Amino acid sequence: MDWQEKRYMVKVCSMYYHDGLTQAEIAKKLGVSRPVISKLLQRAKDEGIVRVYIMEESVRTVELERELEDKFELADAVVIPHNGLSGEMARRAIGQAAAHYISQNLKNVENIGISWGETLAHFVNEFPFLKKGDITVVPLEGGMGIKNVNIHANQLANELAKKLHGNCTYLYAPAIVENEELKQRLMSTQDIQAVLEIARAVDIAIVGIGNPFEDSTLRKVGYIEEQDLRELEKKEVAGDIGFRFFNINGQSINDSLTSKIIGVELEEFKEIKKVICIVEGTHKVDSLLGALRGGFIDILITDEMTASALMSKDTAGL
After folding, report:
1. Same domain, 122 and 157
2. What pTM value is reported for the model?
3. Residue ranges of the HTH cro/C1-type domain (predicted)?
4. Parallel, antiparallel, or unpaired: how do β-strands 167-168 and 136-139 relate?
């Protein structure tokens, strides 16, 4: 290859890779056919003039995604690079990734169910404005009061519906009521029955995972107290989805709170077409492992450190 030929090839590569021009645009600019440009680009790779690299962090996360999909029979997995993020920044990054993924996968979706929590609040905040007026968003459990209203299922359903230019239904009941008798009275009302019926049949359910013992949102908002934690610990609870508790093997746990919760039952999540779980933090590994073993999740969106810790723990047989 002489100098002139090499120079011409580098010029074509620069226009394609650096300037972002299409092969057709380059062909028109240089007065040649598009197949000529295509052959030049391929020859540049063959000659080593152009080398295409996949960033190392992307390779690792894609490998983790495949491992998670295979190990837990997931329909899909999204793992975002760690990048040294922690706390709110990490939750925001997870929210951004989840918002992008879900916004791109709404074809034929008519109903979306959403749970509650800080991670899901970040997801809704990051969700783009779309014109999907034919979509209805429904809360998967109750949520009323004046404390931490921004993370309640009703509020998140309302905010997500606004961004979709869609519709929203409300579950006018607390997530946890005072006693079982009150729960039965509320559950017998026509409005609550109607909302829960929609919630059980949504096309997509968007949920988070809770760990009641460490950095627990349940404790922060006052839904559970020390005596509740002692009971959950005795029953070997690993985590919860929408206030529904399970152990590390994915078995449902009945406790004093269960009989007072208004929302979709844990086993009912298995009947929903697509359950997307958004979770961040290695302190939730046991909780996530239990949810996966229980078969409550179809799609997982998480961070690299959590995914790595999850695979390590499951491989160890814990």
Report:
1. yes
2. 0.80
3. 20-40
4. parallel
- What the block records as the tokens of 173 is 């009941």
Question: What span, in angstroms and rounded, lies between the C-alpha atoms of 123 and 91?
Answer: 8
Query: Helices 34-46 & 23-30, crossing angle to 10 degrees?
Result: 110
Find the range with the poorest average confidence among 41-50, 79-88, 113-122, 255-264.
Answer: 79-88
Name the β-bridge partners of 141. 263
Structure tokens at 128: 């783009």
Most confident of 4-13, 14-23, 86-95, 187-196: 187-196
Q: Quote the CA–CA distance of 94 and 291 in Å, as a whole number.
A: 19
Tokens linked to 175: 């997530």
35 shares its domain with 97: no
**Secondary structure in 3-state letters for 13-49:** HHHHHHCCCCHHHHHHHHCCCHHHHHHHHHHHHHCCC
Instruction: Give the Å distances, CA to CA, from 77 to 38, 152, 179.
Output: 34, 26, 39
Q: Give how many domains the chain has, as a whole number.
A: 2
